[in-house]
Amino acid sequence: MNKQSGIHYLREHQASTGDAPVPAEVARIRDTVTAGLGDLLQGAFDAVDDSLFELANNARSNNEQNRYFEAMREIRIKRKGVERQFQNTVARFFSNPPHTRQLSGSESVQPANADSLSLVGNDDLEEQVAFNAMATKAKAHFQGPLLQLQARFTEVYPDATEDNPVNPMAPDHLCNAFTESIQALDIQIRERLILLKQFDRYVISNLGMLLDEANRILVQAGVIPNFRFHGRKDQEQSRQPTGSHSDSLRPAAAPQPPSPEESALFSQIQQMLALQRSQAGTPPRSSDASLRIVGGTELVSMLSQIPANPAPPPDNGDLSTGEPVTLDLRQVVHALLAQADNGDGKKPALNEIDEDLINLVSMLFEFILDDYNLSAPVQVLISRLQIPILKVVIKDKSFFSKTSHPARRLLNSLAKAGIGWSNSDEKARDKLFDRIHEVVQTILNEFDGDITLFETLNNEFEQFLERENRKSQLVEQRTRESERGRIKSQKAQEAVDSLLKEKVNRYRLPETVTDMLTNGWSRVLFLAYLKDDTEHRWYESVRVVDDLIWCLHPHEESEEREQWVRVVPGLLKSLRAGLEQVSYNTARLDQVIKELKHELANAFRTNAAIEARQDDPDSVPGTEPADPGHPSAVERQQELEDAAVAEYVTKLESLEVGNWVEFRLVNGASFRCKLSAIIEEAGSYVFVNRMGLKVIEKNRIELAHEMRRGRMTMLEQGALIDRALNAVVGNLRTKTA
């Protein structure tokens, strides 16, 4: 590479200053980058804090909750140190830049093999996978700026060469600096992966602006001001056949191109479609002189002749009424081609790329029409968008290869927002349904080829959803708190009843004592159970019962009688204080205490024993104990039932808070609801509707039975288009196998 005039200036400046570690321009880049990365890293740590708090709030057990709170505390304490170490490490990259692997337009990441991973621990492997994915995505997203910056930095640093380039801002170096900085954090792998995820989201994904600024500073200094790179992509475009889209129809360069994973999936689909054509013996269209390839402006113009909504809505104007709209898009397009004869004797035809895109849109909507996870009204509405989406795809081919495409994001948002819909819902009174209906109606009426309409509608729809979600989250939070309180009260009552049943039924206590325990002290025990988490009064309240019963026993030994004398005053004081707290029989509390004193004194004076019951309160008269060696028919049936349900209990482990399910009733009706809380103390699962109101509560065994009988189905909540593409890949792989 030829040296530009600015290069000599920078290197002379570096040599003349002697003790200056880097040239002034590089120092300027270093200061800008370290400050910018510091600001971005603060956003990442704030997001980590929010994520851990949310996980702790939805934790299934106290241990799990404590784990997240401990991780949050650990990160908060050491956060400043991590930020400082990260910025210092990045600054050192500019003073002593590590050499960077040579980049090119055709760079591909070599996957790790079994040998290279055999000695890596599971946690280290997970972290390494996250690191590789982060760096790989960044190099793909910012390939152009990184290539320019690598070439310019290689010119600046004297020890760098084209074969051994340097780039202090390479994603590999930045990711490695961060992973080293967080080694001081005493957290587990899950929390460490959350850190890496937010670092990727807030820092690496926003690296472009810093790369652009660094390139700008070096260009101003005269470092390779006219950079040119001709990679494989340019070569492929120069070989593109004549019937493809014109440059005027290509979308503007997106700020974030498709990730390698997205592009690989789309390329895989195209390869399988091409394989299908070769297996069918279909020759390439470009080699057939009898065909006239229709593409570009002509094809888009032809598609504009198709009405956006070929299936008009009923008289009431409700687009969701009836069955989903079924169209054969391939037949529709070929019918248009048949009318495009311009008299030159050549038959109009599509090129392979456009043919593949039309096939993909057709297969996409076939999946949508069969997708059980979509609620019926939303499924009908989305089915009406087949023609607009076809026009979008023909005009902008990145729909299938880029998850951030506006039309793709809008379809995903509509499907996700409507997952809670059921056929029984009253659509006329629901703002969300009105908004989804309005979005579809706007696309059908106003879409004229300008894809920014989808971006505008999606932004407005997400803002609306954010407002609605805030309302439903408040209601859902109240529902969760109410249910937790109700279930804890239920558990408290069960614990009290069980305890008193065991204590009272064991002895023939005086009637006064029995009445006071069951109708008065039971309330004290109930409150103590509820407040035990904070006040630890449960065992103290139970000990009062044990002390009372002990004092009613006969005591002949002098040591026991001395202990009785010490215990009774405090016992009576505790009984009075507890009964006063629960307002037990206020009018005659003094009389109750007086009677208790009498019973206690009588037991002490006469040594009269309270009689132990001879019969077992749990036994039922007239029944014989079962032979343990020969289980009954009922027991055998129960064993078979338990074994059958065990498989479904295991499946419930994948059911998490926030997941949607559908219940089907015996009469054939169905409803959808979201898991709002798992209350471990009672093994209860609480489900709410879209508005956050409770609709059903079941325990783990009841849910397993519902799944076994086919009356509960867990719904998939992944992005609609991603699920559709995965299904398309599976179908194509089956056909081409």
Show the helix and strand layout.
Blueprint: H1 5-17, H2 24-57, H3 62-95, H4 114-117, H5 122-141, H6 143-156, H7 171-181, H8 189-202, H9 207-220, H10 232-238, H11 260-279, E1 291-294, H12 296-303, H13 329-338, E2 347-350, H14 352-370, H15 376-383, H16 386-395, H17 406-417, H18 431-446, H19 452-504, H20 511-530, H21 532-535, H22 538-552, H23 558-581, H24 589-606, H25 633-651, E3 660-664, E4 670-679, E5 684-688, E6 694-699, H26 700-708, E7 712-714, H27 720-736
Parallel strand pairs: 1-2
Antiparallel strand pairs: 3-4, 3-7, 4-5, 5-6
Helix pairs in contact: 2-3, 2-8, 2-9, 3-7, 5-7, 5-8, 6-9, 11-27, 12-16, 14-16, 14-27, 17-19, 18-19, 19-20, 20-22, 20-23, 22-23, 23-24, 25-26
Number of domains: 4
Q: Main β-sheet, in a few words? A: 5 strands, antiparallel
Low-pLDDT parts are 1-20, 102-120, 229-255, 614-623
Mean pLDDT equals 77
Region (Disordered): 229-267, 611-634
Protein name: DUF1631 domain-containing protein
InterPro entries: DUF1631
Question: Outline of this structure?
Answer:
The protein has 737 residues and is mainly alpha-helical.
Keywords for this entry:
61% helix, 5-stranded antiparallel β-sheet, mainly alpha, 737 residues
